[in-house]
Amino acid sequence: MKFSFEQQGFIGILKLYGELSLERESELTEALMVSMDNSDYLIVSFHHASIPNSAALKPVWSAQQIAMKQHKDLKLIGMDGKALTYVLNHDRYSRSESSQMLP
C-alpha cells in the first residue's frame, strides 16, 4: 500500500494506492491519523486501492470515530458498496453499544 496526501486550505485529500491488507493496517492507521492531524475536512480516496478483506478497513472505522470526537469531517470516496457497508455497520454498532452503556 502507498498513499499520498495533499492539503488545500483546511481540506486534506488522502489517496490510497495498492492493496489494503491486514498486514498494512499500521501503515493505513498512520496515514489516516497524520492526515487528520493536518486537516479539519479529510477526503479519503479509494479509487486506486483494492480491499481484499473488509477487516482491513478497521483503521478507517476508527478514524471515523476519532473524527467525530474531534468535530472533524471524514469523507470516503471510491469505495465499493460491500466495503462501505462494513464501515457503516461498524459505526452503527459502536453507537448502539455506547448508548447501551449509559446509565
Describe the structure.
The structure is a single chain. This protein is of the alpha/beta class. It has a single domain (2-101), classed as Transcription Regulator spoIIAA (2-Layer Sandwich). Helices cover 45% and strands 30% of the residues. The chain has three helices and four strands; from the N terminus they run E-E-H-E-H-E-H. It has helices at residues 25-37, 58-69, 81-101; strands at 2-8, 11-19, 41-50, 73-77. Strands 1-2-3-4 form a four-stranded mixed beta sheet, covered by helices on one side. Helix 2 (58-69) links the parallel strand 3 and strand 4 (73-77). The longest helix has 21 residues, at 81-101. The N and C termini lie far apart (43 Å). The model is unreliable at 95-103 (pLDDT under 50).
Q: Level of helix content?
A: 40-55%
Q: Overall pLDDT, averaged?
A: 82
Which regions are unreliable across 5 or more consecutive residues at pLDDT < 50? Answer: 95-103
Q: What is the H/E string?
A: EEHEHEH
CATH level-four homologous superfamily name: STAS domain
Quickly give the structural class: alpha/beta
Number of strands: 4
Secondary structure tally, helices? 3
Number of domains as seen in the coordinates: 1
Could you give a short account of the major beta sheet? 4 strands, mixed
Broad shape: globular
Question: What key attributes describe this structure?
Answer:
103 residues, alpha/beta, Transcription Regulator spoIIAA, 4 strands, globular
Spell out the blueprint of helices and strands.
Blueprint: E1 2-8, E2 11-19, H1 25-37, E3 41-50, H2 58-69, E4 73-77, H3 81-101
Parallel strand pairs: 2-3, 3-4
Antiparallel strand pairs: 1-2
Helix pairs in contact: 1-2, 2-3
